[in-house]
Amino acid sequence: MNMQQKIALTLEKGDGVFRMAPVFVPRRFAQAGKRLRLHPDDYYAYGAQRGSIKERWFSSVIPAMNGPLAKADEGMSYVAVNEDASDKFLFRDAIEQLGAAIIGDELYRKYGTWPMYSKFFDFETPLFHHLHLDEASANLVGRMGKPEAYYFPPQLNNHPGLFPVTYFGYDPDVTMEQVRDRLLQFESGDNRITELSRAYRIELGTGWYTPPGVVHAPGSYLTYEPQWNSDVNSVHENVVSGEVYPYEFLAENCPDKEKSNIDYIMGLMDWEKNVDPHYKKNYFRPPIACGHSDERHTEKWITYGNEYFGAKELTVQPGRTVVVKDAAAYGTVLIQGHGTFGVHEAEAAGMLRFGQMSGDEFFVSESAARQGITVTNRSKWEPMVFLKHFGPNHPDMPR
Asked: Which top-level group of life is the source organism from (predicted)?
């Protein structure tokens, strides 16, 4: 059996749904929040020099930009062929082989691959004030631009970390010259650049959309992050919670000739969005209930209002069975409860060992999504709660 046949057979056996293997990603900076439901002994599974595991990635066809020690497939999702995932293949390879049969004609024709991924972002301390490059700037270094969104699931936030507050942009009264002066201090001392920003206390059960070019310092709640297929940034803040970041964090995604050009680095910002006096009005995302919700289940849009991706939260009540239909392919992770998802057994992770298979992550092909996935909650007490991430083509996403 060749690879294409194996992929097609796996999709057929799953009635159009792939079961995915968990993908954990270390970061060499900051501290782990330890809310990923990973065994406490396994947070340094990649070795101490790689840093602790702070993220889990979903539906990813791209590797993490994680330094020279990272493996080529780090961050990339795998599809399990058998129950323990001892036989598996890259999700990227499945898309390359079957294309539109998985993600639909529209996405495959426009992008040639699945264009987004999602992650759990799990830091005990706040992250540095940074931005993600837009498409034009990222293309100059062989990468793609990166918009992203946030949702803060209560089920995964048993503690708030050390700083559950997020900074976005700069105060409307701040000038570009003030920001420039702080960036020029990057190598001489603590530039304390968030003194120029605005902070918002994180509200569980809500979210935000962050366009490329907007500087932000995420707070310390575990965050569900739908985002575009990119891992590219520029860091404005050089000291965070006592940890010092080198100049390369500011300039690593600039062309070589521009790495010392502060004006080029400043130009990575979308200045008008950074100083938008109505930033919360424009980019805060409270959930929006879907009209088909009833006493058996509820669905809410939790990421919307952009041209790149969307996300829903699906809740199925105890003892209920529902058929859930969507007009587009999606990835999903179960964060509470147990039951069945299509032909698959499904259960939220309690505590996983690194490398262990789980029963909480799936990818649904477009045809299966349109036909509908039968979800049964086998619990008498707890709801089943799924987070579902889509590309840009779901027709019902609030714009």
From this structure: Bacteria
Q: Hey, is 143 helix, strand or coil?
A: coil
- The residues near 71 (Cβ < 8 Å, ≥ 6 apart) are none
CB 266 within 8 A of CB 180: yes
**pLDDT of 184 higher than 90:** yes
Q: Which amino acid belongs to residue 10?
A: T
Residues 6+ positions from 66 with CB-CB distance below 8 Å: 25, 26, 27, 28, 50, 74, 75, 231
User: How many other CB atoms sit within 10 Å of the CB of residue 280?
Assistant: 12
Question: Model's pTM, two decimal places?
Answer: 0.97
Side chain identity, residue 85: A
Per-residue pLDDT tens digits for 224-248: 999 999 989 999 999 999 999 999 9
Distances (CA, A) of 73 to 23, 88, 89: 10, 13, 11
Which CATH number is 288-390 given?
2.60.120.10
What single DSSP character describes residue 369? H
Residue type, 259: K
Give CA separation, 253 vs 42, 68, 230, 245, in Å: 31, 15, 12, 15
Query: The tokens 């598996």 sit on which residue?
Result: 88
Amino acid at 286: P
Q: DSSP letters of 62-77? A: S-----TTS-TTTT--
**Which residues does residue 285 pair with via DSSP β-bridges, in sequence order?**
207
Phi and psi of 280, rounded to 5°? -65, -40
262: nearest Cα among 244, 250, 253 = 250
Q: What average pLDDT does the structure give for the chain?
A: 97
Identify whether the C-beta of residue 236 lies closer than 8 Å to the C-beta of residue 250.
yes
Contact 386, 335 (CB under 8 A): yes
Q: Could you tell me how many residues make up the chain?
A: 399
The distance in angstroms from the start CA to the end CA of the chain is 44
CATH topology of domain 27-61+116-285: Jelly Rolls (2.60.120)
87 token code pair: 């036989």
Tens digits of residue pLDDT in 276-307:
999 999 999 999 999 999 999 999 999 999 99
DSSP-assigned letters across all residues of 207-244? EEEE-TT--EE--SS-EEEEEES---EEE--SEETTEE
